[in-house]
Structures are given as structure tokens and as C-alpha cells.
């Protein structure tokens, strides 16, 4: 799994470098390139994910909200949007035939790279928005003998695919406290 993440990270970085070099070129190919999230946008999202943990199987429900606080253009072309997000995680953890519940809340800063109106030769990317988030989480309820709450690092990374201007489906990988959520898929509404 670590090898796949490393390869994906390298490919993503190379794609962003390639797009940035096109954006800074003299022909100004990305003049109309816009973000999918503008300052002041509020979005609500919910996802269901697979949460394996220490050899166990778990299912997670992750609702959340995000507010976009600002935008920045790199090289006057590449649009980045920055936000703050609050996320909840409800994990049903199956342990030796017993089901246990874990509840975590997290707050994080986010960064989005949207491809709206990116233009040729990358018009096939126009519905996509890739994002990362980093912050802190608090375990409110731990399953079994783990019992006590802790403040932990939280992170997420994923891709939104906008079906309409205010509605997207997404996939992400998240680490919220004690729980990792792999293969998470959800829906997002933007206001």
C-alpha cells in the first residue's frame, strides 16, 4: 500500500508540474483556468468508507462541512483554494465477532487545486478538483479497552468530480485519529 501511495504521489506531483509549466508558458494557454471553490463557498459532504484497523474490518460514515476562506493563483494561472473543514467519523469496528463503535471529530485546513475551464490539451480534467487536508482530531469514543480519548494528527487527500457546478462525487483516503479510512466514496453539495 505504501508503494502505491508513493507512486501516486509522484505521478500527481509530475502532473501538477507539467500543468504549471504550461501555465507559465508564453502562449498563456490557461488564461481561463478557474477553481471549483471560490472564497465564501460552503460545502457539505458525506462518505462511506472501508476502515481496516489492526487486522479488523470496519465501516465508516464520515459527514463534514468546509468553508473556503481564500484563493491564490500560482504564476497568475494555477488556481488554489484554501479552506477550513470539520469532519466526523463514526466507525463500526468488527472485532472477533463483536461490533464496536468509534467516534472521532476533526478540524483541518484544506487546499484545493481545481481544473475548471483548464482548456486544451487538458479539457478532460475540467470536472476534477484534487485536495489535501491536515489538522487535528479528537477521539470521542474508542472501541473496547482503548477507552481513553486522545488528540491526534488528522489528514485527508482525495479527488472531487463535479457532475454539476454545485454537486460532486468524491473518493478519498483519510486518517482521523485512530482510524484510517481507505476506499472512501461520497457526495458533496456546494452552496
Walkthrough of the structure:
The chain is mainly β and about 190 residues long. Helices cover about 10% and strands about 60% of the residues. The chain has an eight-stranded antiparallel β-barrel. The longest helix has 22 residues, at about 1-25. The protein starts with a helix and ends with a strand.
Short description:
It is built from one helix and eight strands; from the N terminus they run H-E-E-E-E-E-E-E-E. With 191 residues, the protein is mainly beta.
SSE order and pairing:
Layout: H1 2-23, E1 42-50, E2 57-74, E3 78-95, E4 98-114, E5 128-141, E6 151-164, E7 167-176, E8 179-190
Antiparallel strand pairs: 1-2, 1-8, 2-3, 3-4, 4-5, 5-6, 6-7, 7-8
Gyration radius from CA atoms, angstroms:
18 Å
Q: Sum up the overall morphology in one term.
A: elongated
**Unreliable stretches covering 5 or more consecutive residues:** none
SS element count, helices: 1
Can you count the beta strands?
Answer: 8
Main sheet, how many strands, which sense, barrel? 8 strands, antiparallel, barrel
User: SS-based structural class?
Assistant: mainly beta
Mean pLDDT: 80
| Fraction in helix | 10-25%
Distance N to C terminus: 35 Å
SSE ordering:
HEEEEEEEE
Strand content: over 45%
Strand order of the largest sheet: 1-2-3-4-5-6-7-8
Amino acid at each position: 500500500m505504501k508503494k502505491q501511495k508513493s507512486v501516486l504521489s509522484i505521478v500527481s506531483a509530475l502532473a501538477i508540474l507539467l500543468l504549471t509549466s504550461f501555465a507559465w508558458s508564453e502562449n498563456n494557454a490557461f488564461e481561463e483556468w478557474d477553481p471549483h471553490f471560490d472564497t465564501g463557498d460552503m460545502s457539505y459532504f458525506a462518505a462511506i468508507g472501508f476502515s481496516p484497523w489492526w487486522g479488523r474490518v470496519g465501516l465508516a460514515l464520515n459527514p463534514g462541512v468546509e468553508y473556503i476562506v481564500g484563493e491564490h493563483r500560482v504564476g497568475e494561472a494555477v488556481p488554489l483554494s484554501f479552506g477550513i473543514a470539520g469532519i466526523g467519523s463514526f466507525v463500526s469496528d468488527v472485532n472477533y465477532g463483536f461490533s464496536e463503535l468509534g467516534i472521532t471529530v476533526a478540524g483541518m485546513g484544506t487546499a484545493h487545486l481545481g481544473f475548471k475551464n483548464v482548456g486544451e490539451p487538458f479539457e478532460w480534467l475540467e470536472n476534477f478538483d484534487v485536495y489535501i487536508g491536515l489538522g487535528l482530531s479528537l477521539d470521542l469514543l474508542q472501541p473496547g479497552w482503548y477507552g481513553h480519548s486522545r488528540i491526534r494528527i488528522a489528514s485527508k487527500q482525495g479527488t472531487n468530480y463535479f457532475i454539476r457546478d454545485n454537486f460532486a462525487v468524491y473518493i478519498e483516503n483519510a486518517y482521523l485519529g485512530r482510524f484510517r479510512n481507505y476506499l472512501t466514496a461520497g457526495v458533496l453539495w456546494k452552496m
